[in-house]
Amino acid sequence: MKTIINENQRGLLFKNGKFVEYLKPGSHVRFGRGFRAETLYTGSEFKVQDYDLDIFLKNPEVADEVEVFDVADETLALHFVNGKYRETLVSGKYAFFKIHDTHEFKTVSLQTPEAAGDVPKYLFAHIPGFLFTKIEVADYQKARLCYDGKFVRLLEPGAYYFWNNGTKVTAGLVDARSLQMDITGQEMMTLDKVVLRINFVCNYKITDYVKIHTEIEDYEKQIHILLQLALREYVGKYRLDEILENKEQMSAAMLARLKEKETAYFVSFSDAGVKDIILPGEIRNIMNTVLIAEKKAQANVITRREEVASTRSLLNTAKLMDENQTLYKLKELEYLEKICENVGSISVTGGADLLTQLSQILKGA
Question: Which residue has the higher pLDDT, 54 or 337?
């Protein structure tokens, strides 16, 4: 059997499955049956399938040319070759050729889930994803970090990395912005037994990001129920006319009622208001009829007022003209001017002038 080993290779010679010789670059010839050679590249890990590493390390030549590193339990090792990241090693024993390369190993403890700050974040783009969990918290969020269901701390906006070491890591994201709660089409009965549908809205902000989840089950649903009950309580105290006339008062009263519950719900209510009040069809028709009647009555009052004012003006004008002949003549000339504007042509007969004849026509009329 002839085997050629290149400069960037090393060989392992086996006879009947037993390691017998370490082959360096060159040509190697062995006679006899049962010989087998396996070639390894010096730029890769020293690893032979189905053989334990310690078998080869007993050979002095092998031990002299490889770098051995043992990764303990609950530990990872970041492997750098010639100063550049190559891979991440889990628990086990490893050997790498050091003939042409320099190897460095940075150990990382997995005893605590959170990745220590001395691990550069850029490496997580290369570390296998099954080894860690990434949690991202946006600028408008907070996150409740828990280990095995137990609260640890509140995470501020940013990116966080946690090793998958058997501890269950969860992070409940909470919106830190001003939030809005809507009550739409909620049917409620007034004091005078009229059923209304009300659209209501309120704005709130979470004040305790931890307790709102640990002490309240489904806080959004609970706040929704709080709004419903507060609305029913308020609407049930007033008649329909009072509610329609005092929408702003209703909004203010609701906001005051909600603020009483802020501590219990771990939120701060900033605003509350009625968007719409929807009346039943028959009530809406009645109110429309009343509105039309009111508008007609207002129109009649205005018409009568204008007629009285016009008559009073005519009476005052008549008195002035009766007392002042010059004013009377001016008024007469004013009417003659208006008549002339609407006449196409005028024929004058007799000896009198045009103005005199027109004046006589007006007097005759």
Answer: 54
